[in-house]
Amino acid sequence: CISTSCPSACGGGSAACDPRNYNNCTHCEPISLELCMNLPYNQTSYPNYLGHLSQRESTVSWESSLFPALVQTGCYQYLMFYACTLLVPKCDPLTLQRVPPCRSLCRNAKAKCESVLGIVGLQWPDDSDCSQFPEEGGNATCLLPEAGVDECSPSHFKCGSGRCVLATKRCDGHPDCDDHSDEDNCGCSERALWECPGSKVCIKAAMICDGFPDCPLLVDEANCSACGDNELPCNNHRCVHRTLWCDGKKHCSDSSDEWDCGTTLSLSDRSGSVLTVFRTAAEYQVCADEWTHALSLLTCGQLGLGVPSSVSMLPDQPGIPGRRRWLHVHPEWHLRNGSALQARLEKRSHACHSRRRVSLICAREECGLRPAVGGYPHRKKR
Amino acid sequence: ILGGRVSRRGAWPWQCSLQSGQSGHVCGCRTLRESADLWTVVLGLNNLDHPGVHRQSRTVRSIIVHPRYNRAVVDYDISVVQLDSETDFVGPVCLPEPGQLPSPDSYCYITGWGHMGNRMPFKLQEGEVRIISMSQCQSYFDMKTITPRMLCAGYEAGTVDSCMGDSGGPLVCEEVGGRWTLFGLTSWGSVCFSKVLGPGVYSNVTHFTAWIRQQIYIHTYLSD
Hints:
The structure holds 2 protein chains of 2 kinds.
Chain A: E1 5-6, E2 15-16, E3 29-30, E4 43-44, H1 55-59, H2 63-71, H3 79-87, E5 90-91, E6 98-99, H4 103-119, E7 156-158, E8 164-166, E9 194-195, E10 202-203, E11 231-233, E12 239-241, E13 264-269, E14 272-279, E15 282-286, H5 293-302, E16 307-315, E17 326-329, E18 345-346, E19 356-363
Parallel strand pairs in A: 15-17
Antiparallel strand pairs in A: 1-2, 3-4, 5-6, 7-8, 9-10, 11-12, 13-14, 14-15, 16-19, 17-18
Chain B: E1 5-6, E2 16-19, E3 25-27, E4 40-43, E5 56-65, E6 79-83, E7 107-112, E8 125-132, H1 134-138, E9 150-154, E10 170-174, E11 180-189, E12 200-204, H2 205-221
Antiparallel strand pairs in B: 1-8, 2-3, 2-4, 4-5, 5-6, 7-8, 7-10, 8-9, 9-12, 10-11, 11-12
C-alpha cells in the first residue's frame, strides 16, 4: 500500500499496513495539482506514470516545472494535456483503474519536443516510454485530447496568438508572447488588482491590511484599524486593550502585542545596562529585591544576547523628574515556566524597599565561529 | 553542490540534514508544509553513510512556514523549524543585522549533500560562490521575477551551484574577525545539471531577520 495505514479491505476503518495483508488499495482521488486543474477529468490515482507516489510528490517534482516551461516553446499543441495524463493519470470511477494516454499521443509529444530538451542538455523523462501505453482503437481504453481541450494550464497566460507563457510573465515589463499580448491591458483594475496610491504597483485586494506592507509607501497597511483610546492596534489591525500589551501573553491573534516590547536593556551609565521593561506603553524599572541569577539567565536568553556576564543592583538615581515606575519579581515567578520575563514580574502599590534597580550585562552568544578542525587552522587565501 | 569539494569534518557546524522516513537525507530543505512529525533533523554530521560520534538527531516540535510563502513564484521561501530539544553539537551561525547585505562580487560559501551533477554525495560538499547583483541576476531569469526576498550567487556558466537536495541549506559569508553570517538559504535556480546557464537563487535572510527573531521569541517565551 502506498499510505502508511491501509483501509481494511479498502473499506471503512484502517489497519496498520502490514506487507502480509496486502490489500489492493487502489482508489480514485480528486486532482489537486494546480497545473492540471483544467483537464476533461477530475479524478486521478497514484502511483502515476512518472513513479511519483502522491500528488504531493508530483507538486515538488522537477517534471512539474519542466513541462510548463517546455509548453512555452510551442513544440506540441497537446503537450500540457499529455504531461497531465502522466502526472495525474485519469482514474476510472467504476474500475478504480488508471486510464493511460494512447501511444500515439506519447509518440507525438516525444517526437516534437524531445529535441527541444536536448538543446538545454536535458533528457526526456525516461519513465514515459511510449511502448507501455496501448494503441488507440484496441481493446484497452486510452486517452486522446478531445476537441476544445485547453493547451495551456492554469499556471499559464494564453497569448492572443494561442501560445502559452508562464503566468508570472504577465505584465512583468518584458514582452514574452510573440504578439506581445502578455503586456497589454496591464493596468491594475484591468487585472482585478488594487493600485498602490502614488505608484504603479498592483497588489491583490487580499494583501490590503493583512499585516504585510506591499506598497512602496506602506499605504496598504495604513488606516486599517479604528481602535479605542485605551486600545492599541495589532500588526493585523485587530485592537487589544493597552493593559494587555507586553504582559508576556499573546492576545493579538498574530502575537504582535508581544513583539517589540522585549525587555529593553538600556545603557544608562558606565556600570552596565539598567533593565527596563516596557509594559502598557510605559517604561518600568525592576526592583532588585528577590532578583535571582535564573532571572538574569532568562533575560539575556530572551533578548538573544547569550548569557549574563555581570549583574549589579544600582541605587535609584534621585532627582530624576517624573515618578519612578517599579516592577517587582512575582512571588511565584518560578512556577511560570515557558513564559517571558514580563509574565514573571508584577506591579505593586508600594515602591521598591531597597530602592535598588537591576542592571546586567549579557555576553553575546558566540555565533558564526568555525572550529579549526583537523588540527590545522582555517586556510587563509594567499 | 556542483563544482564544489568535500568539506572537512566539523567545518560547517550549523549545517543540518532534514530526513524523512526511510528515504534518509531529503535536503536542508523546505518542502516543509507537511506535518512536523514526518521529519527528523540530523546535526553534527559530515558523512551521511558514516555518521560518527557527533551525530545527533532531533524530532521537530513545530514548523513555521512564512505566511506569505508563494510556491508558484517561490517567494518568501523560508521556514523556522523548532526542534523538540536543545543540541550540544550545533555551532550557531550569526543572523545578519537588519539592512546588512553581502556586497556584490564578494565570495561566500554554500554547503549541502545535494546533487553533484552526476551523483548524490555521502560527504558534505562546499562550494565558493560570488554574490551577484539583483539587476544582473534578473537578466538570467526572464521566466521569473527576482524579488527583494531573493539573493543571487554563483557564476554565469553555473560552474559552482547548489542543486536538488541542497535547498534550505546555508549560504554564509565570512565577516571581520572570522565570524560567519547566514545571508542566504538555497531556494531555486535553473535546472542545475543541464547546460542552462545561470546562478542560484537564495532566500534573502536579511529580509527576514526580524520575522525569525519574532518566531523564536514567540515559540520560546510566550506561554500559549
